């Protein structure tokens, strides 16, 4: 019987990978463990030197509320998917790190040794504040502003139960600590019997702090590579 893989990202982000894994021979179910919604933001951008996008979601919700980025503002991003999202609005980043993690982003941007900058950082309501703290310590002025909220889609409780009854889950993929925590509260089966795939060190850390191990973790923190790891390891 084909291995049963569970995708837990937002509904819109699961479909491409569902097809990839199904074509590779897996049975795949998608049950979102997070959902996002916009949060009002009316920040005036003219006073800033940089804007930092930490995810494709920050790009999406920013441009839903702001038509353009002033030409004088430079753009920094974390991750290739963030860059791709930015391109949809006609922009390309002036800076992105060599590895798609917050720590590498911080170290490499600070290594530019730019004199005190005014930085706008759109974020979610649950995002960490490492960038703002580290940049402030280095003498930069950082304004964080929540532009979207992350929560749990209640309908996923019944969806997950239905999926579990159809066939036991063998592998579950997580791309955020929030998705993992929601799954932990919702899943009625034996989590230790699952193989867990994690995208990114922050997600892996959250999983391990809960007392569970990670079977698959890609080097470049993308869904593409996690799918490749699953296909190599399970088919």
From TrEMBL:
GO biological process: protoporphyrinogen IX biosynthetic process; uroporphyrinogen III biosynthetic process
Reactions performed catalytically: hydroxymethylbilane = uroporphyrinogen III + H2O
Pathway assigned in UniProt: Porphyrin-containing compound metabolism; protoporphyrin-IX biosynthesis; coproporphyrinogen-III from 5-aminolevulinate: step 3/4
Domain Tetrapyrrole biosynthesis uroporphyrinogen III synthase, residue spans: 20-226
Keywords: Lyase, Porphyrin biosynthesis
EC numbers: 4.2.1.75
Gene3D superfamilies per the UniProt record, alphabetical: 3.40.50.10090
Key word RNA-binding present: no
GO MF entry, a single one: uroporphyrinogen-III synthase activity
CDD domains: HemD
Lineage top rank: taxon: Bacteria
Enzyme class: lyase
Pfam short name (any one): HEM4
Record function comment: Catalyzes cyclization of the linear tetrapyrrole, hydroxymethylbilane, to the macrocyclic uroporphyrinogen III.
PANTHER family, per the entry: UROPORPHYRINOGEN-III SYNTHASE, CHLOROPLASTIC
Family: Belongs to the uroporphyrinogen-III synthase family.
Name under which the protein is recorded: Uroporphyrinogen-III synthase
